[in-house]
Specification:
CATH superfamily of chain A: Beta-grasp domain
Strand order of the largest sheet of chain B: 3-5-1-12-9-10-11
Oligomer: heterotrimer
Distance between the termini of chain B: 61 Å
Strand order of the largest sheet of chain A: 2-1-5-3-4
CATH class of the domain at 38-134 and 200-291 in chain B: Alpha Beta
Chains: A alpha+beta (81), B alpha+beta (748), C alpha+beta (158)
Order of helices and strands of chain A: EEHHEEE
Number of helices of chain A: 2
CATH topology of chain A: Ubiquitin-like (UB roll)
Helix content of chain B: 25-40%
Helix content of chain A: 10-25%
CATH class of chain A: Alpha Beta
Distance between the termini of chain A: 36 Å
Number of strands of chain A: 5
């Protein structure tokens, strides 16, 4: 199981929990499990999210490995100018 | 990919100030920008725009226009279908209005004619019947429940029930116990701020040349930050396949984020399709201001608590952003960035996006961050003044560092903020006493940076020279930096390498030139493509020498036996290997594709000295210094250039630039005379200090530098002005009338 | 409206062209003569990207009618170098990174050359005020001023 930190406004879809646990070993598995467990998150996940794994921010990176003790933070999809 | 592990690499070419490959073309007038391309028999395309801020389009009669001699095609919204994808649909509706004109300048029809005169006459002959609707252009007014509704049903699921119809997005970030944090503060300051929408202000208006043949094959030449994005969007809007549309990026005359989307390209393609002739559209400056670009306009509340010793105990902000008539989520970025420079136990930011009858927001250098950080840095400065603390000491005390849980969630790795603050503290600028009437402002800045999708080919030519093909428009000297990295990795002189920007048919997909990504991500891919070519060259040499491939190593531009056991062979240079490539297995090329991560966040600190004429409200910047971490500066001239250019755009934002709307919702200052960007005589020298704290995510330690520089000036200038007039300013721009008003209000 | 024939000298060469009565000199240079070095950044004389010289005087070519160029000597960015030999200003802009995107550069070079032709030893302030009509959005002007001053110093010592 990995702990996944969600940003504040996503918590309305996770019964108020800031941090949820999912069984996942990769970037994609985290998102798939989140969408299954918390369907309210699905629209945001489909629009796109970034994910910080141990401090490094990934935009799309399905196969990026996640260790059980990794710090995983779901973030909005990064855009720039 | 991690920073190369062999410790501190001694670079031979990285960090030198070589001549840029496109330089001579650009100083002799030969370089071809968007408007500089022509095609035989091409038509002049022009766009008719709504004069109303908000109006229902009841009827468009184009019959008279079509009858004008020389007019070959007229298009309206009826010619375009609406794509299923919501983002594409918004772009489609923005490039040509359908049922409603959503802002002053919204495109409603377009013509193509044999001459500019005929096109102009045709625009006048198009009859549009409007039903003018109530409009709203102010972000706070638009949030009210009874505000005119810009677009119905556009709220994301993130918006709680009960909000007004214009509220389309809500977000919240942070951690810790705010109440407890504020309870520990000796001083709490709470303030509200407003920032005006600004425009990227690139000197080159949008321009394109489109052709579309009867068989559906289309070609597009345009000034853009991303030809692949143009292809994706135009193909989606027009319903054609990507392979049918080849997009070539011209030289680009500035973008700063404003050329990361399309405005005229689908219209030109549609006109070309209808007329069967090439169509060129070049926007006027008036159109650029009215229908492209601007940043969000904002309204922001910030509350910060601080101990007497200067430690921040809690920080909170509510950000209300409007990116015009279409939904966007830029406020996500501002809400994450607002407190990023600080190590905080308790922090919370709340963001809202609100629709207004203004043009659709485009990205502008660190989109969303300058406004949020301006508000936070203003309150930090006010606390420093109130508690009689040195503003740099306070920032050093509170600075985010390795191990800090950032305000947006993740824990920071190596970041350069502390080193940047300390460099500013030690700099002669900060230690020069101010003269009477002068004041000094300080601000931190932050941007995320990113990497993204990147594809590079590197060809070893048979004469021992090298061609690099990449797919990112060169907006400020990146071809030089990419060539430098290829030369460094291969061990050949810089002038043996030529880097070109491919069209969309010639190379795999590349993300737009944005997010400060090019030197980082294209550089990374170029280094890896060079390594791919090196591996192939070593393989050829291994066969020649009759030894294992592993026994050949690459050094200083040549293949060498890897050690004494590999055998004794004289090194073979790249030139020698290239010369016999046909005999050893054919052409040699390296390739690499990646969705790059590890861009590494970026911090900067700016110092600004200025004086304010208390009779006129006019601010004069006297001295300005930029400190920024570049990871590794590949071409220091262009790193400094990014820092200076960003700073001056920020100074313009702070002092002069704003979208001014009349009561009728029309833009009042759609030209460079009234929308005043900084000119040479407004400014002093912009000094720079590049710090190099290697980014562990790049083989040479490179960190993007393009965007952070625009973030700190807003507060650095505002803090200095506030100190100069002894009144806290909380609205941008601080144009002379606004400063004068603040001075008079304080005098009572 | 009937077209007008105009005889001029452009960068030292005699040139005839036809234009509409309401056509700007900039449009004629770019559209009729293929000299696309001068750029249209605003069309209202605010940005200076279209700067050319007419009989030695610096003008915004977007504000002048092409028909008014009859008999005039016009200088554009394309005429600054002599063949492949760059003018010291051009070389200096390359050496000092006085350009990023480069779209304002033709106008700034024409304007800077007009300044140095009049005043070979300007102060920084004089350079900044002379170039105040030439907008650059990329550089913040710092490296442009350095490039002009370096070229001026080199030209004085030549």
């Amino acid at each position: 199981m990995v702990k996944v930190l969600l940003w504040g406004s996503l918590r309305t879809h996770t019964d108020g929990q800031a941090e949820v646990e999912v069984e996942a070993r990769t970037f994609k598995e985290v998102l798939d499990r989140l969408a299954e467990a918390y369907p309210g998150l699905r629209p945001q996940i489909e629009r796109g999210v970034s994910m910080a794994i141990d401090g490094r921010i990934y935009r799309e990176a399905w196969f990026t490995e996640i260790k059980p003790d990794s710090e995983v933070v779901v973030m909005p999809y990064m855009t720039g100018g | 990919m991690a920073l190369d592990s062999h410790g501190k690499r001694e670079f031979k070419q990285i960090g030198t100030r070589v001549a840029r490959p496109d330089g001579i073309d650009k100083v002799t007038g030969r370089a071809l920008y968007g408007a500089d391309m022509s095609a035989p028999g091409m038509l002049v395309g022009r766009i008719l725009r709504s004069p109303h801020a908000h109006a229902r389009i009841l009827r468009i009669d184009t019959s008279e226009a079509e009858a004008i001699p020389g007019v070959k095609a007229v298009v309206t919204g009826a010619d375009f279908s609406i794509p299923d994808d919501a983002a594409l649909a918004d772009i489609s509706v923005n490039v040509m209005a359908r049922t409603k004109a959503l802002y002053d300048g919204h495109a409603v029809a377009a013509v193509a004619a044999t001459s500019a005169q005929a096109a102009k006459a045709a625009l006048k002959a198009i009859k549009v019947e409007y039903e003018v609707l109530p409009h709203v252009t102010d972000v706070d007014a638009a949030m009210a429940p009874d505000a005119p509704v810009v677009q119905k049903g556009r709220s994301l699921e993130s918006v709680p029930a009960g909000m007004g119809a214009n509220v389309t997005h809500h977000c919240e970030f942070g951690h810790g116990d705010l109440e407890a944090g504020f309870a520990r503060a000796d001083k709490i300051v709470e303030r509200s701020f407003k920032t005006a929408a600004t425009h990227q202000g690139y000197i080159e208006p949008h321009a394109c040349l489109a052709t579309m043949n009867g068989d559906g094959r289309a070609d597009l030449w345009c000034c853009t930050q991303g030809q692949y994005m143009v292809r994706t969007v135009c193909a989606g809007v027009l319903g054609i396949e990507a392979s049918q549309l080849r997009v070539t990026a011209s030289e680009i005359g500035g973008g700063f984020g404003g050329k990361t989307t399309v405005f005229i390209e689908p219209v030109a393609l549609m006109l070309a399709k209808k007329s069967g002739k090439p169509v060129k559209i070049v926007m006027t400056r008036d159109e650029v201001f009215k229908a492209t670009g601007p940043t969000v306009s904002t309204s922001i509340d910030v509350k910060i608590g601080m101990t007497k010793a200067g430690r921040i105990t809690a920080g909170a902000a509510t950000l209300r952003y409007s990116g015009g008539a279409f939904p966007n989520t830029t406020v996500d970025m501002g809400a994450q960035a607002a407190f990023a420079a600080y190590d905080l136990d308790a922090v919370r930011t709340v963001g809202w996006n609100i629709l207004t009858n203004r043009p659709k927001e485009s990205a502008y250098r660190a989109p969303g961050a300058p406004q949020a950080i301006y508000a936070v840095e203003s309150v930090v400065d006010e606390l420093c003044l109130a508690l009689n603390l040195d503003p740099l000491d306070v920032r050093i005390l509170n600075a985010a560092r390795k191990g800090t849980k950032s305000s947006y969630g993740p824990t920071f790795d190596d970041i350069g903020l502390l080193a940047t603050l300390e460099a500013a503290k030690a700099h002669p600028h900060y230690n020069t006493p101010l003269k009477p009437g002068q004041s000094r402002g300080v601000s931190c800045g932050f941007w995320f940076n990113f990497g993204g999708n990147t594809c590079v080919s590197l060809n070893i030519n048979t004469d021992g020279t090298v061609g690099v093909t990449e797919g990112n428009p060169d907006i400020g000297g990146s071809r030089a930096s990419i060539s430098l990295m290829a030369a460094e990795e291969l061990g050949v002189p810089y002038d043996k390498v030529r880097t070109i920007i491919a069209d969309t048919a010639s190379l795999g997909y590349n993300d737009v030139t944005d997010g400060s990504r090019v030197t980082f991500a294209v550089g990374l891919a170029t280094i890896k493509a060079a390594r791919d070519a090196i591996k192939k060259m070593c393989g050829r040499v291994a066969k020649i020498w009759g030894i294992d491939e592993d026994a050949v190593e690459w050094r200083d531009g040549a293949a060498h036996p890897a050690g004494p056991n590999a055998g004794k062979f004289p090194p073979m240079t790249l030139e020698e290997i290239a010369a016999i490539s046909f005999e050893t297995g054919g052409p040699i090329a390296g390739h690499y594709e990646v969705n790059a991560d590890g861009a590494g966040v970026s911090f900067g600190v700016h110092l600004c000295d200025l004086e304010v004429d208390k009779e006129t409200g006019q601010t004069t910047i006297l001295r300005y210094t930029v400190f920024q971490d570049a990871g590794k500066a590949v071409h220091p001239d262009y790193v400094e250039g990014q820092m200076q250019g960003g700073a001056v755009q920020g100074i313009g934002w702070a002092l002069n630039e704003e979208y001014i709307y009349g009561a009728d919702g029309r833009l009042l200052n759609a030209g460079f005379l009234d929308y005043r960007i900084p000119v040479a005589s407004d400014l002093p020298k912009i000094d720079t200090q590049i710090l190099e704290i290697p980014n562990p995510g790049h083989p040479y330690g490179v960190r993007g530098v393009g965007e952070t520089g625009i973030v700190p000036p807003l507060a650095a200038v505002s803090n200095a002005v506030s100190r100069a007039i002894d009144v806290r300013m909380h609205e941008l721009p601080m144009s002379p009338p606004r400063v004068l008003k603040a001075i008079k209000a304080a005098r009572g | 409206m009937s077209a007008i024939t105009v005889s001029t000298t452009v960068n030292g060469d005699a040139v005839d062209f036809i234009c509409q009565p309401d056509e700007s000199l900039l449009d004629a240079l770019r559209g009729r003569l293929g000299l696309t070095g001068a750029k249209e950044g605003c069309g209202t004389g605010d940005c200076g990207a279209c700067s050319v010289t007419v009989n030695g005087r610096l003008v915004c070519s977007c504000l002048m009618l092409a028909a008014e160029a009859e008999g005039a000597e016009i200088g554009t960015v394309e005429g600054i170098a002599k063949g492949n030999a760059l003018h010291p200003l051009q070389q200096s802009f390359l050496d000092h990174a006085g350009l990023q995107c480069g779209v304002c550069t033709p106008g700034i070079l024409v304007a800077a050359k007009a300044l140095l032709d009049r005043n070979p030893d300007p102060t920084d302030e004089e350079v900044r005020y002379w170039l105040a009509g030439n907008l650059c959005r990329c550089t913040g002007y710092d490296k442009i001023i350095r490039a002009v001053q370096s070229a001026a110093a080199q030209m004085r010592s030549a």
